[in-house]
UniProtKB/TrEMBL annotation:
Name used for this protein in its record: Lipopolysaccharide biosynthesis protein
Superkingdom of origin: Bacteria
Pfam families: Wzy_C
Keyword match Ligase: no
Annotated localization: Membrane
Keyword Membrane attributed: yes
Species in which this protein is naturally found: Pseudomonas solani
Sequence intervals crossing the membrane: 12-32, 38-57, 69-88, 100-116, 128-146, 199-223, 230-248, 304-325, 337-354, 366-382
Main location, first listed in the record: membrane
Keyword annotations: Membrane, Transmembrane, Transmembrane helix
Length: 390
């Protein structure tokens, strides 16, 4: 048995060194790790395992985690997901699917453990990662200009594999810096715009319109948080959009609706077959669109994916989870950290309305739209609640 002092020292090392390194790698690793499989394995080694070890050393932290309403809703959502496997047509290994919510729970625990030890350390690591991503975006732009890919759309470096998924990651960090600027104080006011510029340029180079739409929605949300500054941002976006339509309309209009309305209509039709309970988690779908030779399997809408697989029951839990996150942020809207966190959650929700279907997966680009923002809110809320108990 370890003595109390040794347990404290080991816990300190795990949380303030091991988990912090893991959080930084999770946020930036897609830009420099060689593949998605390596990225996932690094997550297991630097976040999942040490989080589990830290909880074993300090079991009372489990109580802190399980007293959070968002965590409880996530557990209910996960239990329902596992229940739907009974009628799902998935071909994946059952054990592998069961582990997915466990990994997410450990990630939430990791963020919360860091915040409980030092909120500034969690936020500082996120800020450091955002700076590194700005540098990575600059490098990606350089490669893009020197060796343009066949489709002339920026893919990025490392484990990033296509422009759309790259835009998920860049979009979250672009939102982070914009929200940081909106919630800024007078110190280092120049830093956020400086960091935003290369990320925004790289985002535009991906050719994806989803993050641009999501940034507009996020700016509208920020009117509730920082009205004057958000109004200035919206005016700037409106002017930029007008100039873009006037001088380069193809940038926004050349691909039309990309068959989104037809895909969504077919997804809703299929959802009606099992409206309440869903077709089962990880079930496979086919969307046949008239005028399109390619057969699609992605509804290009996260909420529709939840509805298809988990039904109205699962979608209800999903919406409650996000609603609680935004409610936490609104209640603490004078706190700059919650202001930024709320922007990330809203950005992910808005981006997920036109892209994505991977809502409960191993670590990948979709986490930057869903689980990284939600876990940040959970960590901040648990830390705030911990201060109230002291």
């Amino acid at each position: 048995m370890l003595s109390q002092s040794r347990r404290q020292s080991l816990s300190f090392f795990i949380v303030k060194r091991w988990l912090v390194l893991g959080y930084l790698v999770l946020l930036t690793g897609l830009f420099w790790l060689p593949s998605g499989s390596v990225y996932t394995k690094v997550f297991y080694a630097l976040i999942a395992f040490p989080a589990l070890l830290a909880l074993a050393l300090k079991p009372r932290r489990c109580s802190d985690l399980l007293h959070d309403p968002m965590v409880l809703v996530f557990l209910v959502f996960s239990a329902w997901m596992l229940t739907t496997l009974a009628w799902s047509g998935t071909d994946d290994n059952f054990g592998g699917l069961v582990k997915r919510p466990l990994y997410l729970l450990l990630f939430m625990a990791a963020c919360s453990l860091i915040a409980l030890e030092s909120r500034e350390l969690l936020l500082g690591t996120l800020r450091t990662a955002a700076m590194l991503v700005a540098f990575a975006a600059l490098v990606s732009l350089g490669w893009f200009l020197l060796e343009p890919p066949p489709e002339n759309r920026l893919i990025g470096t490392g484990a990033l594999r296509n422009p759309l998924l790259t835009s998920h990651v860049l979009g979250m960090f672009c939102t982070y810096w914009i929200a940081t600027w909106l919630s800024r104080d007078t110190r280092q006011e120049w830093l956020a715009p400086l960091m935003t510029l290369p990320i925004l340029l790289a985002l535009l180079a991906t050719g994806s319109r989803t993050p641009l739409m999501a940034l507009v929605v996020t700016s509208l949300w920020m009117l509730l948080i920082t009205p004057r500054r958000a109004a200035l941002l919206i005016l700037t976006i409106a002017v930029a959009g007008g100039l873009c339509l006037a001088f380069s309309p193809d940038l926004l209009l050349q691909r039309g609706g990309s068959f989104r309305p037809q895909i969504w209509a077919d997804a809703l039709r299929q959802a009606q077959d099992h409206l309440w309970l869903g077709h089962g988690y990880d079930n496979r779908f086919v969307f046949i669109i008239e005028g399109l030779s390619t057969i699609l399997s992605d509804p290009h809408n996260v909420e529709l994916a939840v509805l298809l697989e988990l039904g109205l029951v699962g979608l209800g839990f999903w919406l409650v989870l996000h609603g609680l996150g935004l409610w936490h942020c609104l209640r603490q809207r004078k706190d700059k950290a919650f202001q930024v966190a709320s922007a990330l959650v809203v950005y992910g929700l808005a981006a997920g309305m036109t892209e994505g279907s991977s809502f409960l997966s191993r670590p990948n680009e979709s986490w930057f739209l869903i689980w990284i923002p939600l876990s940040l809110v959970i960590a901040l809320a648990i830390q705030k609640r911990g201060l109230g108990k002291e």
